[in-house]
Amino acid sequence: MENELFQTIKEQGAKLDAIWKSVEKTRKYFLVIIWVTVILFVLPLAGLVFIIPQFLDVYLGSFNGLL
């Protein structure tokens, strides 16, 4: 009976290690997804905040002499 208990505890420890490894892989995957989202969406969006006013200034400035 005591050997069965130790065997069960060892099996549970092995399963916990496997679960931990899986959780760490998932955590790293989500971290990569967050960084890719920031790089591909948020940074260009922030860049547009500075580029659109400058573009409009140049574009509307070309009509200044016509009006």
UniProtKB/TrEMBL annotation:
Top-level taxon: Bacteria
Keywords: Membrane, Transmembrane, Transmembrane helix
Transmembrane parts of this sequence: 29-52
Name of this protein: Uncharacterized protein
